[in-house]
Amino acid sequence: MKKFLKLIGILAGLAVLAVIIIIALMPWMDRWGATSDEIAASFPGDELVPSPAISYNRAITVNTSPEEIYPWIVQLGAERGGMYSYTWFETNILQCELINADRIHDEWQGLNVGDQVKMCPGDFGPVPYQVAIMEPNRALVMGHQEDGQWLDVWQFILVPQTDGTTRLILRSRDMKTGGFWDIIRPGVFIMERGMLLGIKERAERLAATGSVPSVQEMTPTPEVFIPLDEAIPDYGIKLEEVHLDIVNAILSKSFPAGCLTGDAPGCVGAHIGYSILSVTFKPRDLPEGQMLAYKNLPSVRVAMESNLAAPYSLYIYDNALRTLTLGFEVPESATVFGLEWADLTEIPLEIVSR
Q1: Which of 265, 344, 279, 348 lies closest to 313, judged by CA?
Q2: Structure confidence by residue, pLDDT tens digits, 59-90
Q3: Same structural domain, 168 and 93
Q4: Last residue in a domain, options 147, 179, 212
Q5: How far apart are the first and last CA of the chain?
Q6: Considering only CA atoms, which of 261, 326, 258, 251 is closest in space to residue 295?
């Protein structure tokens, strides 16, 4: 009994310590990345909640123009571009399965004032936000109303800088505070920080390359409308306990698929009489900041008709996108392919030709 009471006392002490740490860090969380001038500035949306019970500002510098950033903000939301934050946290902790887009989707750029922006797919999750203000390439404001009065606003502000960069400022003004709302604030900070970093990464990458990423097939429109476990079949492919989804299988004359030998560094051409089947995998549950153990692959082959089979001979791991692509050189005459991964039952592949 004494040991049990001692354990209770230790846990209670740790809980109190955690509360003290969170309270101490709250001012830092509420102004993460923001300057004093940005905190004091007036922005579109302030007038909707003129006297908030709580307000915070979070900001980040994005190395591109507002025009390159705004489309990513416009397509925010579940059943759209996602939240660009920590997928593992969204799926496993919040139980909100989102697919975060890696490209600009034209079909999601028609957002208008009054439209709803959902945080989770389906009917699950918090009440959707309502778009309140849209000033292209400058501001997008959304929030919640009750009886015609705004209870809270979420303000995405873009401020161009003289050096060609842009300050992306996220401000929230809220009439709700205390109790539950204070408890979830650290979690909100974690996800919003991840979102700002996610927008920055995507906007800078697209601005630097001037084109859509080569893995654009990773975020086709239908996937975003269906939970992960239904959108992409889970065949049980695992690499050191990390589940892998098959993103695509592309048959072409080069590796990576579609590259031009001689023009792109690292582009490999198929031998005469052969093609290269590129199969791309994306981890479903790889923790943030951890690299996929792609060098520890088991036996992986593609099976073809006439009992032919080919092991992978090429591979590329993209640490930024966290995708692994394997290349299999196959006869030009082959038309039916199945993936053989270690001891798993052969997995049929749907092939796209390029």
Answers
A1: 279
A2: 999 999 999 999 999 999 988 888 998 777 77
A3: yes
A4: 212
A5: 70
A6: 326
Tens of pLDDT, residues 112-145:
999 999 988 877 778 999 999 999 999 999 999 9
| Whole-angstrom distance, CA of residue 347 vs CA of residue 329 | 18
Whether residue 125 is found in the same domain as residue 69: yes
Task: Say if residue 71 is in the same domain as residue 188.
Answer: yes
Alpha carbons 139 and 32: distance in angstroms, whole number:
19
For strands 139-146 and 314-318, give the pairing.
unpaired
Beta strand 338-341 with 347-348 is: antiparallel
Which pLDDT value is given to residue 229? 43
pLDDT of residue 36: 95
- Burial of 148 per CB tally in 10 Å (0-12, 13-18, 19+): exposed
pTM across the whole model:
0.57
Cα atoms in the 13 Å half-sphere on the side-chain side of 98? 28
Residue located via tokens 């809980």 = 15
**DSSP line for 33-52:** T--HHHHHS--TTGGGSSS-
Amino acid residing at 6: K
Helix axes 66-74, 185-209, angle to 10 degrees: 130
| C-alpha distances out from residue 25 to 33, 39, 75, 172, Å | 14, 18, 31, 18
Same domain, 126 and 92: yes
Final residue before a domain boundary, out of 149, 178, 212: 212
Range of the domain at 138: 26-212
